Amino acid sequence: MVTYESVVSELKALSEQKFAEFQRRIINDDKLDIxxxxxxxxxxxxxxxxxxxxxxxxxxxxxxxxVVFLKLAIAVRMPxxxxxxxxxxxxxxxxxxxxxxxxxxxxxxxNRDAFIPFIKKFLAAKDGYAEGEYIRRFAYTTLLHFxxxxxxxxxxxxxxxxxxxxxxxxxxxxAWLLSVVLVKHYDIGFEYLNSTMCDIxxxxxxxxxxxxxxxxxxxxxxxxxxxxxxxxx
Length: 233
Hints:
This protein is mostly helical. 67% of the residues lie in helices and 0% in strands. It has a domain at 1-75.
């Protein structure tokens, strides 16, 4: 039988103190302690457990980053109807950017239209509602993972319009999403960047991220950099 003590003992045996110290600095989660298990190893641990183990894991304390990661990593295998029944409970576990960015249930990609109301709900999450900043970030990373196609661009633009004077990790996720739009649908992305609806912080971060991509041409990078300079002046 899987117990909290056995899981924590296994994770501690796989942990590295120096890596834990590094992770604490870059993840900066003030809710969870970090043992320091490297992500490839942590993913292998997650594969050992079946979907039937998920209810047991959800009963474990939210004490360690790695244990919460396992809760989410097992949950990504859920069929869609089960996932949406537990979705609110799962997104409330997102207390840092790393957990958020790793949480991309495949069933969403097979049920994109049905999941849109959840995205809109999560974008409206308040900071007093559990971890509102990371719930809103999850909405943007979900769009990034599953929705950057021409038919969903109006939805994406509508969601980006809601990113105004946002917290850092939300703005960064929105900018990441916009940079992917630039990579895949440059003309539409550029038109939005040049509009009055685009938040200045999101725009500048999106331009920087897009200019790091090898899929953006040299000419496009010059156009983007010129836009950033023009807006500053």
